């Protein structure tokens, strides 16, 4: 396997509502409400010493058909089993700093699609072997004269078209065919109704027929919003506003999880109404803060929520934008 390293991480316990300490046993924290109630899993994904194995995190989360959890970090991509053990890793320059990831089951297997803001490209690689099969650099065919290209989000249409958002630079969203050939682009930077002020996250909204693009317009004023576009780049509607700094979106059935960089995760139903808020951080010193070390983490309280994903049981995996690398498992209460 190309650059695939195998290692083991044993889940241990941390502490509740106080800084995380490996030697202290804690109980799960319950959060949310109604059908969207969850319990945390203290120490999930830690090594034998009770430490995070990830290093700095500024990425996303996905889950494959077998239930394995993929998360991207500065070092590369780590793959965990549902019980928190590392089953494989894809490390090195080709996998580093993937800001957003999506997973897709294709005839040749499952593939990870990634947006690499630092490297200025999109990427596609095999989820099991790590073999890179496609790279998407800035499309010169667009005839745009951009000084910077820093993709932050990626998703894939039902026909295989790849949509890549230049969220940390021009705020154009580019469309490629399944082989990486440039097709079109749309959007521009600004605070107008049909403009983006950091098109930070994006996914295919399968709650609708035909599916739509659901885009996180993170810094749109006065406060962050979600918007719908069709797959040809035509504006449909403003979905919800006042979300703070929404960073990404993940769909399961009729529900959407939306991490907010201020340190919380909101869940929307099919009417795009907020039905639960998880991990809300009211401390101005630690929310929207990358530099919260592991010994200052608080069980059940988030700091810079950046990525999330559902497994088939409805559990959530949540990544914080964090210097020590934080990935949390939230178990759905039946």
Provide a descriptive summary of the structure in words.
It is a single chain. The chain is mainly β and 334 residues long. It has strands spanning 4-5, 30-33, 36-40, 61-63, 69-72, 76-80, 86-91, 100-106, 109-116, 121-126, 132-136, 153-156, 162-165, 173-176, 182-186, 199-205, 212-217, 225-229, 235-241, 250-252, 255-260, 264-268, 274-278, 305-310, 316-320, 326-332. The strands form six sheets. Strands 1-7-6-5-4 form a five-stranded antiparallel β-sheet, with no helix packed on it. The chain has a five-stranded antiparallel β-sheet with strand order 2-3-26-25-24, with no helix packed on it. A four-stranded antiparallel β-sheet has the order 8-9-10-11, with no helix packed on it. It starts with a strand and ends with a strand.
Helix content: under 10%
Strand content: 35-45%
Shape: globular
Category by helix and strand content: mainly beta
What's this, in brief?
With 334 residues, the protein is mainly beta.
What is the secondary structure topology, with strand pairs?
Elements: E1 4-5, E2 30-33, E3 36-40, E4 61-63, E5 69-72, E6 76-80, E7 86-91, E8 100-106, E9 109-116, E10 121-126, E11 132-136, E12 153-156, E13 162-165, E14 173-176, E15 182-186, E16 199-205, E17 212-217, E18 225-229, E19 235-241, E20 250-252, E21 255-260, E22 264-268, E23 274-278, E24 305-310, E25 316-320, E26 326-332
Task: Identify the notable features of this structure and list them briefly.
single chain, mainly beta, five-stranded antiparallel beta sheet
């Amino acid at each position: 396997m190309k650059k695939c390293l195998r290692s083991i991480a044993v889940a241990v316990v941390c502490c509740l509502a106080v800084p995380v300490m490996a030697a202290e046993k804690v109980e799960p924290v319950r959060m949310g409400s109604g059908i969207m109630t969850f319990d945390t899993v203290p120490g999930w994904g830690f090594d034998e010493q009770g430490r995070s194995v990830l290093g700095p995190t500024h990425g996303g989360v996905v889950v494959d058909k077998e239930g394995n959890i993929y998360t991207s970090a500065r070092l590369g991509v780590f793959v965990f089993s549902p019980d928190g053990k590392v089953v494989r890793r894809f490390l090195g320059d080709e996998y580093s700093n993937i800001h957003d990831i999506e997973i897709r089951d294709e005839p040749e297997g499952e593939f990870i699609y990634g947006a690499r803001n630092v490297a200025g490209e999109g990427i596609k690689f095999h989820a099991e072997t790590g073999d890179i099969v496609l790279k998407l650099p800035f499309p010169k065919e667009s005839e745009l004269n951009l000084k910077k290209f820093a993709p932050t989000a990626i998703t894939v249409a039902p026909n295989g078209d790849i949509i890549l958002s230049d969220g940390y630079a021009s705020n154009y969203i580019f469309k490629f065919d399944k082989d990486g050939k440039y097709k079109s682009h749309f959007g521009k930077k600004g605070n107008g109704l049909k403009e983006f002020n950091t098109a930070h996250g994006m996914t295919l909204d399968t709650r609708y027929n035909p599916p739509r693009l659901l885009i996180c317009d993170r810094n749109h004023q006065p406060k962050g919003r979600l918007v719908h576009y069709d797959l040809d780049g035509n504006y449909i509607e403003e979905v919800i506003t006042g979300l703070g700094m929404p960073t990404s979106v993940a769909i399961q059935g009729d529900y959407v999880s939306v991490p907010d960089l201020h340190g919380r995760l909101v869940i929307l139903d099919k009417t795009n109404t907020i039905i639960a808020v998880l991990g809300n951080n009211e401390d101005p010193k630690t929310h929207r803060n990358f530099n919260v070390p592991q010994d200052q983490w608080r069980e059940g309280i988030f700091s810079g929520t950046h990525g999330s994903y559902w497994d088939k049981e409805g559990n959530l995996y949540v990544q914080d934008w964090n210097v020590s690398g934080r990935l949390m498992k939230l178990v759905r209460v039946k």
